[in-house]
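S1.2 Input.
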Amino acid sequence: MFNRRILIPLTFIFLVQFASAQAPLPSSPEIEKKVDSILSKMTLEEKIDYIGGFNDFDVRPVPRLNLPAIKMSDGPVGVRNYGPASTVGGIGLAATWDFELVRKVGNVFGDDARARGVHILLGPGVNIYRAPMAGRNFEYLGEDPFLASRTAVAYIEGLQSKGVCATIKHFMGNNEEYDRHNVDSLIDERTMREIYLPTFEAAVKQGHVCAIMDSYNLTNGQHMSQNGYLNNDVARKDWGFDGIMMSDWDSTYDGVAAVNGGLDLEMPAGAHMNRATLLPAIKAGKVTEATIDDHVRHILRKIVQFGWLDHEQTDYSIPVYNIPGRTVALEVARSSMVLLKNDGNLLPLDTAKVKTLAVIGPDAYPGQPVGGGSAGVRPFHVVSFLEGIANSAGENVRVTYSPGIPTLSDMADATDFVTDNSAAGKPGLRAERFLSDDLSGKPAEVVTDTHVNFGYEWPSFFGVPSKFRSVRWTGYFVVKESGKYDAFVQGPGEDGAYRLFVDDKLAVDNWKRVTALVNYATLDLSTGSHSIRLELRRTYGDPNVRLGIIREASVVNPDVAAIASKADAVVLAVGFDSSSESEGSDRTFRLPPGQDAIIQAVLAANKNVIVVITSGGAVDMDSWVDRVPAVLQAWYPGQEGGTALAQLLFGEFSPSGKLPVGFERRFEDNAVYKSYYADPPESKKVKYTEGVFVGYRHFEKSSTKPLFPFGYGLSYTTFNYSHLSVTPQSGNMSEPVTILFDVTNSGQREGAEVAEVYVGDMHSSVPRPAKELKGFAKLNLKPGETKRVMLKLDRRAFSYYDVQSKDWKAEPGEFTIMVGGSSDNTPLKGTFAATQ
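S1.3 Output.
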């Protein structure tokens, strides 16, 4: 008994140590020997089985060789698949411009993964932001490859220090969500190397990332899961990647081409890379067993390097409910929100003057921590903007609330249709359901649907019974008061296509390409009956659909004017949510239906309005931004968004987020306005005709200026820049160039500033941007405090990718060094003369 009492605590200590985090070991002869030993014991059939996923989210176990199942989880904004977990916004990480904070996020995700026995987290996501409509921008890290690289490397280092494999995705050219299985991204070599590949390159070379996930799309004519040039030549040969190249889920299309094109692991299962396909191919000489061995070796190498054969991945000493994670999530949300406008210093709110504060809008409650799709992590609790503000307001401030407009579901239920334009018409629409994909043939079933409101909550699909492949709804909408109406369809994303006709005219077209989950047209409708025809066809999954027609003049809830007029100030929360901005489709540049109307209604009732936007990027503000005194971009702020917003509104902290993307006033101002969508749609080819001039690089070249520039963000204090020094002032760049400058808090309160360093090359033999971000530092400064900043620029900072030599090239001549607080505010300028 005595011995057992001693043994139990000793055993407990041993197990805790045994399960402790292990950062991956570097490759060594001993590791390679162990990998080869395991590989030599596997049969060819076992090897082929091993490169196909298992149980949806696992690498297949091989019990006879003591190889455990290797467990994966969706990311990149948290550990998704195994219950509630810490949730931190994606593009918001880039908006912090704070890679030390991002490294803490990686640590939090690593702890959450270990607490759940997860070996591989499917993040970070790093596809470059080309256009605001891309449905997964909220997961990614903005428009600039340097900022995205620094952010991604910090994330990877933090995560992998906990013994969890990071997976950088989606490799590459997946810069839109519409028709992602079929779109072919046509990108020239220089543009790939300078804009779309550097973040992946940094992840491999600097972050030593464990895995790369190929994307759904084709790039330059080849699906990425079989793109040998990018997978083998670029990632493995040029960069030295030695990890796992995996497919996105169901993004493998040809087993032989994928194996030969560099794919190590087909997920979620071996639908193409399997015995039936590969054994005959090996026998016929189309695939070698050595190629199969290489793929297995890449997986086994990471298993050995991370020590997953030596300890149980689940660390029971780590709490599943991550209290330190809440603190980090709050810091990220607070540091990422960007103050875009603050006319008259409306913010921070003065609680001595603001006694009644109205919180209005569809995104005020409930909280919107993340967008939709595979990034949809569920936190244990989400602090909504309403709750955060009410909890922080104190006893002397009365907080009132209205959602402002109905939900889309309520709008659909409130839309009355009739089946026939006569007194005999029944309520609803006539629904013809077809077994064909294209509405052809005789309907297999005809029913009447009172409303078209088949529920929408990704990934749980409802609606049309699965045996039907297409549906047509017809009937009439009776207008009692003429005016402007928004006719909207909330559709199934990539799982289906739809089109809406009003009076036999095409109003909403998501038929050949699904441009948005929620799409709508603003129509002038006269009194009387208007014919309606909605057509839906299934593509991949179970279609869901919602149809509504709302009168703009009456969509705003009646209580809004009263609540707003009685308040001293209004916080108006608008934007998107997980059902309107999500994986598998894009979104509109316009705010969702009814939201512009609520902004106008609130502005008519109160002049002290703070608009808070939830979105993964820019939205159309043109009709109201010049009349709103304060605007704050909140992104999708994760689980602690409401608390963070309140801390900024009431002045507990000063805003410090900066835009990781430029915000255009109109989408027509964007560099990709004419090239974002495949044209014609059936071509499926998206030509990146803007080349390297995307985002702020385009605005610097164009006479059109952004509404809010890249790197921009206001504070409650002010900052001055001075004493720029460039050392040496000339040289051959064999040694780094040192940039020194001072930043002073010239205001009356503490705050944080992001100091940004840009390099311009106007003497180049090829067209280059006027400036490119090449360094930054985030500084916390007390009033009157000055800090000296030192940043070093290596040869790459001055180089472009030379297609002829297939290498980075810095041409002799004078470079401009620009330092300041945003891409269009660089008060300090110096030069560096490169001799060779």
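S1.4 Remarks. The domain at 332-397+572-701 is CATH 3.40.50.1700 (Rossmann fold).
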